[in-house]
Design brief:
2 copies of one chain form a homodimer. By secondary structure, the first copy, chain A, is mainly alpha-helical. The longest helix of chain A is centred in the N-terminal third of the chain and has 25 residues. The N terminus and C terminus of chain A are likely disordered. Chains A and B meet through helix 6, helix 7, helix 8 and helix 9 of A and helix 6, helix 7, helix 8 and helix 9 of B. Chain A binds a DNA duplex through helix 2 and helix 3.
Chain lengths: 211, 211
DNA sequence: AGGACATCGAACCGATCGGTACCATCGGAC
DNA sequence: GTCCGATGGTACCGATCGGTTCGATGTCCT
């Protein structure tokens, strides 16, 4: 009886069920677009159960976004790792993965960014800041291995491309966005790796690492 | 009596007052973060007046965002025009202007994008799509004058940088974001203007114009 | 003076919000 | 069989939501 207790009446299972439904609904409807009652109805649980597991709607939002941040981070790391040792290949693989995501039906931008932008205080913004830190870790590694003069700066420029791509693909249309942004990221990587001395001086100046 | 009727009791004045307050409040609190009653209180008008002018909260949101889109578009066009004839200077001036905006106290990202992301239907998304079209117009002109192989593609890549920069500056911190993104945009411009044949093939492939 | 128009303030509407309390029920451990 | 923890269902709370209506007040134009 260490693990795998009964099939039904499993608190962990219930929690997962709520989280899964909340992930879908909060993404589709927005943080304020659905009430706790509606959430419970779609998850097939009672309000009391939801509040026992998450304490408040805010708690549910935090747990949902943190789980999502974990999944996305893992997903991108694996995409990069599977692309072999070349930094440019890894970066290309990351943006290939993102491009596939943008093209999925029901894509509405980055759930974490969307949530963070709806309330300027609360859990969502903290999760979003941490989420971007994680992206930066991955990108700085790639930038450093590519020999970028300023890996931190290049990583941040590519992060801007990632976040911007989600917004543009969502609000302005997906067509070509994935490929175009992939090429832009690779161009920045090339320009930075080509050395501080390009045909016209380096592409990135010395700036703070920020945040 | 053709124009400039009385000083007080001027419907156009009242409308402007409501719009101005709505611009601030909807940006600070979010679309769902404030009720019509609160809006009226801050604007010093009655609900009846607001509804007579805008018909509904949605109508107020649309009018507010459209006015904002007009102002931002004009602002960026003037920044570019004031920078002289060189495309690279114009692009640099646009991103300088944006960098200044990110650093302003109370900056919370692009109001139009933020609004559009909160509801997946409604006026905000239409305004946002049109807003980006206007940005694209400006950027394509610069790209074309710079001799970019594919001005439309380059413009879209730079648009992604613009929108991403606002998100990152808002959620991850402003430090350096403005300069870094400015340099990234200029690097893309250089890479694209250097000719389709770089050291490693062009930076942008043939893709649909999107949307 | 008079009428048309604009506005305020407040009451009011039904619906929904996040959150709590209570109780019957049911599965699993012993 | 017996008890306990997890649960569903439901009613309920005060607050707020977007939107409507009405009457009193005031300003303009003629």
């Amino acid at each position: 009886m260490p693990v795998d207790k009964g099939v039904t009446l499993d608190p962990a299972r219930t929690r997962e069920q709520i989280l899964q439904v909340a992930t879908e609904v909060l993404y589709e409807q927005g943080l304020d677009g659905v009430g706790v009652a509606g959430l419970c109805a779609r998850a097939g649980v009672s309000k009391e159960t939801l509040y026992r597991h998450f304490g408040s709607k805010e708690g549910l939002v935090r747990a949902t976004l943190e789980a999502r941040s974990d999944r996305v981070t893992r997903w991108l790391r694996e995409a990069a790792a599977a692309a072999g040792p070349e930094p440019a290949d890894q970066l290309g693989a990351v943006f290939d993965a993102l491009a596939g995501w943008y093209a999925e039906p029901g894509f509405r931008g980055c759930a974490i960014v969307n949530a963070a932008v709806q309330h300027h205080e609360g859990a969502a913004r903290e999760v979003a800041a941490r989420h971007m830190d994680r992206h930066l870790e991955l990108l700085s590694g790639i930038a450093a291995r590519a020999g970028a003069a300023e890996p931190g700066v290049l990583a941040r420029q590519i992060l801007v491309l990632m976040e911007g791509a989600a917004v543009v693909a969502d609000l302005h249309g997906v067509d070509g966005t994935g490929r175009q942004v992939r090429e832009a990221a690779l161009a920045l990587l090339r320009a930075s790796a080509a050395g501080g001395r390009g045909p016209e001086a380096g592409s990135a100046r010395k700036t703070a690492t920020a945040r």
